[in-house]
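INSTRUCTION: Work out how this chain folds

Fields: amino acid sequence; protein backbone structure tokens

Chain under study, with its fold:
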Amino acid sequence: MKLPQGFKDSIEDFFSRAGIPLDGFYESFDTDGEKGIRINRLKVIEDGYEKILSDLSQKTDPVTWCSSGFYTDGEPSGNDPYYHAGVYYPQEPSAMLPGEVMNVKPGDTVLDLCAAPGGKAVRMGEDLQGEGLLIANEINANRAKALLRNIERMGIENCIILNETPEKLADKLYGFFDKILIDAPCSGEGMFRRDPNAVKSWERFGPDTCIPMQKDILDSADIMLKTGGELVYSTCTFCEGEDELQIKSFMERHPGYRIVPHPEIEGVTHMPDGSMRILPHVNRGDGHFCVHLIKESGTDREYKTEKLPAYKMKRSDNYGFGKSREAMMSFLKDILTDDAYSHRKERYTRDFMVRDGNIHIMPLPEQALRGLKTVKTGLYPGEIKTTSTERLFVPSHSFALTLRDEEICEDRKVSLKRDDERLMRYLKGETIDLTEEEKAALVRNGYIVLEADVFPVGLGKVSSDGKVKNLYPKAWRIM
């Protein structure tokens, strides 16, 4: 691969000062990059990883810096039923490092500031285990759509997706977050061998364009991070000015931070300042930089929810708050086991919100997001259809993907083997025929969940003659 001379000059200077061997570096750009998947821990326990990999015809080849990541032979198919069920997320192995370093815990309030397409956001959403809050922000509206789909496919419930500038978020959500991840826009030098357009982009824009943007993003993040909070900054570039020097400058402007080294993480290149790099000629992954900071002191403004008049704080509209919530809870009681219903009831009741018939389980007071462009306000379980006599709850596809097999009543689910041709027909939007045994086990004229083995993949509705009306979203169907 022909590389820009300016890139070669800067990397040779950096490698020389850092004591990193250059042998094999340029040759690595003429090899194929590593490919990988990360298994969704909301859906698969650790003991089940090997079975999933075997089903996907992959050997067990762990990514050493990610507890649920594995190298793969080739790109896993986006048409596989397990993909549609959110069992795994295709992800370049190097990109798995920041989520592991972030080490999100249930109950944390977390921000992914530059989130699309969502690989790191869904990893942090998994780590929350349904407790706490993830805000995933993407400044580009088109890329925010891909982020939304991945958040929903992977079954992340307690996530708000925003489409805002970091500066506007900082003005609204100061001192709000326990942890912030910045996977910063960068010159993309680590992507050269994976994407030929990355070289052209570097020649047009390059580090000089990216460094000021990264500085502004970091300064906004400081405003939003609580004292005692943690910040992980990463790029997919080799450029020292976007990596170590960017962080050095940030810490000079904000002296309350210190770097947390991670000597326990294997397979990466540990730098003298405590940051980490992944180098394609030394490590098994594309070029990546990652550093973990703790904010030990600062001049924070304490975040306080804005006080609004009572009528502006209502979580209801003219569809009828109480009756709409009753309709949803009645559906949940019918489709969920008693334990699952009890587990969800308190949160769904507390965080219930309805707007124009659309229901949201909103984990924040609405006024906290007032004035911000919102793509997703928590879980969207479904909508309310009003007839002349009643309000009917219509469940969403995204709700189905939050469920686990053991939460669903036996007469409300049908499990199809991953290689059952009916499952592929379902993913194409076709009507599904049931066996006599399956018909006998299912409720008629009601919603059911279709599963790929034990993994919910979508909704259907069983007719009186035992056929399943396909409710798989048109935009998600296999062509």
Summary: The longest helix spans residues 206-224. The longest strand covers residues 225-235. The radius of gyration is 24 Å.
